[in-house]
């Protein structure tokens, strides 16, 4: 896609720091380096977000993540963990609309990444949960 910064990075029109590359996948350092080694994994095919993957492309892209994660772990002996984040649509903090998966190494509770999940479990009865799950289940298709 002509106006996409990540397509330009894949095509080397815009420079980046390559972490991993094969025929279908490119991984490079995120410019912000939220934590040291913050990496983005992207399909070379331009798709906007998670809703546009077919099973084959998902298999290709997501299967690369464990080995890139292990490379980060091996490379940074002080890395204690890894957050994997994938934002989809503006409301969910997506700012670049070429699908990408953030790999964010964690070095301690006070490093520069944080994420909180509010616990709203008490708002849902067991029947509510069963109905929600059943309703979603009916929408799963190939
Ligand atoms: P999002 O907010 O869409 O999940 O993440 C987009 C990410 O792309 C941001 O973390 C941002 O730092 C990164 N990014 C945006 N433009 C560039 C760029 O030109 N080069 C690199 N390496 N990263 C970029
Ligand atoms: Zn693109």
From TrEMBL:
InterPro entries found in the cross-reference section: HINT, Histidine_triad_CS, Histidine_triad_HIT, HIT-like, HIT-like_sf
Pfam family membership, one: HIT
Protein name in UniProt: HIT family protein
GO annotation, biological process: nucleotide metabolic process
Domain of life: Bacteria
Domain HIT residues, every copy: 5-113
Species per Swiss-Prot/TrEMBL record: Vagococcus vulneris
Residue numbers annotated as active site: 100
Motif Histidine triad motif positions after renumbering to this chain: 98-102
GO molecular function terms attached to this record: catalytic activity
Secretion signal, residue range per the UniProt entry: none
Gene3D superfamilies linked to this entry: HIT-like (3.30.428.10)
Lineage start: Bacteria, Bacillati, Bacillota, Bacilli, Lactobacillales
């Amino acid at each position: 896609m002509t106006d996409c910064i990540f397509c330009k990075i894949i095509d080397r029109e815009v420079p980046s720091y390559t972490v991993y590359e094969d025929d279908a996948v490119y991984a490079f350092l995120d410019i912000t380096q939220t934590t040291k080694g913050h990496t983005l994994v992207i399909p070379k095919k331009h798709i906007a977000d998670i809703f546009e993957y077919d099973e084959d492309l998902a298999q290709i892209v997501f299967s690369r993540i464990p080995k890139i994660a292990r490379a980060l772990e091996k490379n940074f002996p002080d890395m204690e963990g890894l957050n994997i984040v994938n934002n989809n649509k503006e409301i969910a903090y997506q700012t670049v609309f070429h699908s990408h998966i953030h790999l964010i190494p964690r070095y301690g509770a006070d490093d520069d990444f944080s994420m909180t999940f509010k616990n709203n479990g008490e708002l849902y009865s067991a029947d509510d949960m069963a109905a929600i799950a059943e309703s979603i289940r009916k929408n799963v298709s190939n």
